[in-house]
Amino acid sequence: MTIHTELPPVATRKPVTVHPLWLRLTHWLNALAVLIMVTSGWQIYNASPLFDFDFPSTVTLGGWLGGAIQWHFAGMWLFGFNGVFYLLMNIFTGRMKQKFWPLTPRGIFNDLRAALRGKLQHDDLRHYNMVQRAAYLFVMFDGIVLVLSGLVVWKSVQFPLLRELMGGYDTARYVHFLAMASLVGFVVLHLVMVALVPKTLIAMIRGR
Question: Membrane topology for this entry (predicted)?
Fold first, then answer.
């Protein structure tokens, strides 16, 4: 009598997707658009400063005002269309509700305190803590403010109602600058967090 000792194959676990392809594409396209818009915007700012300082030419894009404006417009279209696609996909796929809610002041405070003490866990990258949720929602709002204030600065006459809501053309310039500064601050903080948790970069490249 023959005894069969062959065991059935062990089922292999399918890798868990942390970030879908559409999210990774919009993330990297947005990174490119922000880099173009910020550095060209600094060159445009130098032509008519709002404050008593200039940005070094080594960190600006365009070489001169005309060149910087061309780069800024190119980045503007990429930033705008990519941002609209990102928001719509988050809404219609249900990701907005799943990833960013619920959000409470107490939860933000507790997670921020844990982060400052080095005790905030990052085991499951599919889950955003309260600080991440607040930061990502803030940068979405900031991006909308950037676009709206940018439209006033670019086409003030064509958007009179928007210009009035912004407090006038001159105020819109300050709003645009402060929104840009907030975005840069978010990027710096984001890069610091990536350096502290390198696997988040791998997940944004590979999806898992």
Answer: Multi-pass membrane protein
